[in-house]
Amino acid sequence: MAPQQLSWSSLPDELLSVIIQKLIDSDDILNCAVCAAVCSSWQSVVKDLYHQIRPNLPPLLLRNLNENCVNRQSCTFFNPKTNKFREIPLPEVKGRWVSSQVKLPPPPPGTQLQFLNGLRVITSTSPLDPDCLVLASLYVSSKLAFCRPGDRNWTSIVHDQYIRFTNTSARFYDGRNCCKVKSGRGIKRYRTPDPIAIHSFDVCRSRGPLFYKGYFYCLGSCNFIFRIRFDHPHAPTAEAMPFKPHEFCCNARYNYLVELNSDLFIVSRFLIPHKSYPCELTCAFIVCKLDLETEKWFMVNNIGNNAVLLGENNSTTCVVSSDGEDNYFRANCIYFVDDMYPRDIGVLLHDFTMYSTASTAFTTLDNVYKSKLASGLIRV
Amino acid sequence: MASSSSSSSCSSSSEKKITLKSSDGEALNVEKNVALEFEPAKGFLEDNSEEADDEAIVVPLPNVSAAVLSELIPYVKQRLELSAKPVQKKLIKAFDDQFTRHLSDDKLGELMLAANYLGVNYLLDVLCDVTADRIKNKSVEYVREFLGIQNDFTPEEEAELRAQCPWAFEGVDQD
């Protein structure tokens, strides 16, 4: 009898490609990456197939919140095109917001950057990109640090001690498969590697901070917007911006920094108590745009061809094409998730709602979304 | 499975037997309709159709062992009987599941090669599904070992891949 090794390795290429196709079907980016790392012929098969299977709209990352999943170390992707969910187990998610895709260096001993609850990590591009930046923030002690894949240590980001990072971590803007990072030698553009454009499915729990025009921008408490400079690679600094957030931000429950058509926006979200449950509901949004010349904010009631998706702690935007093909979101609308914790029921309720910026009307979306307990939307 | 009714449906063909000769020289008697499911056998029978007595025909299958053939023949036979009847797809799927569930990894590979050589496409599709399922959400090394694939990346390339996506090498599911 032929030994096992012989039989499998003599599989003809066309069979391999059928198997690989089956593996990476249904937008399974994880298996896609594994297949590409097996050997060079698999890599080229994946490369060929990837362009065929690449979905028009990227899947959304949903935070896992089903009733059994308090200790569940996984995350769930939602594909708006197929209405399908895919759960991917993560080794490190419990109590931390750490992407499994990035091997994080251990914190240097004696530093304040302890790995505690509240650590949030995001990446600038796919962690497969050697130039990818990993940014970590620690909510409790308001520390920010970054590293690159392969680094042995975190590099702390020096910031003014009076600037407190609230709900922070920052968000990298990665439009058009690239990300720009300001370094000592000017602005560098990093392309997301193709074909396996995996983005961090972690994690950014920030309510708005983002990577915008070469910098991270974060919303701080004390009504500051600050940005993080990478001019000196080993001592990045955070600096307060001269323009403050508009006055609505103080009263809003959540403020999200958002980039739309390369302008900077703040989406402010207001909540009121629920009538019958001890929880709160979103009641209004105010969208303001920054005029970079005058450094002033202007309220807008039209966000054009864009849809904004707001999670509990993060936001993302997508452009809705005007030809109406393959649109899963409506233009000029804000999609958001409400988490409700009615104690007398003892379960989490989640509501996925659409807010039309033009008509200021709220529409609760159908049960496909609701039943899956979506929270924390992030586009990947 | 419903064998009582099906045995009668192929009783006419069961009279006609063909002999298949495996790679290890064993001769296996099969019904002609089963043999016709195997592309090389079908071709051989067409080429030798002037032969009056089917019983005398011995079809050589030099790429398939007797052990694999004796797994394949009952499968193909039952599958033929199933698909001859207006049964639901669900039933066929259940039958396929039952057939593949207990296959060892080695056997799976052998069957896949055999199904490919013999051109039994419906079986091939099922086997590809099963293979994909078995290496889904596994680490790179698991996949390599499972399929006996020689890692042809240079040590530098390999190190780079590992640095870039170490999780791919760690395995997502418990192996």
UniProtKB/TrEMBL annotation, chain A:
PANTHER family: F-BOX PROTEIN KIB2-RELATED, OS07G0183000 PROTEIN-RELATED. Residues 8-53 form the F-box domain. Gene3D superfamilies: 1.20.1280.50. It comes from the Eukaryota. This is F-box domain-containing protein. Pfam families: Beta-prop_KIB1-4, F-box-like. Residues 71-347 form the KIB1-4 beta-propeller domain.
Automatic annotation (TrEMBL), chain B:
Keywords: Ubl conjugation pathway. Pfam families: Skp1, Skp1_POZ. Pathway: Protein modification; protein ubiquitination. GO terms for biological process: jasmonic acid mediated signaling pathway; protein ubiquitination; ubiquitin-dependent protein catabolic process. Residues 1-22 are annotated as: Disordered. Residues 1-13 have a biased composition (Low complexity). SMART domains: Skp1. SUPFAM superfamilies: POZ domain, Skp1 dimerisation domain-like. Residues 122-168 form the SKP1 component dimerisation domain. The keyword Zinc-finger does not apply. Residues 16-79 form the SKP1 component POZ domain. PANTHER family: SKP1. Involved in ubiquitination and subsequent proteasomal degradation of target proteins. Together with CUL1, RBX1 and a F-box protein, it forms a SCF E3 ubiquitin ligase complex. The functional specificity of this complex depends on the type of F-box protein. In the SCF complex, it serves as an adapter that links the F-box protein to CUL1. Belongs to the SKP1 family. Part of a SCF (SKP1-cullin-F-box) protein ligase complex. This is SKP1-like protein. It comes from Citrus x changshan-huyou.
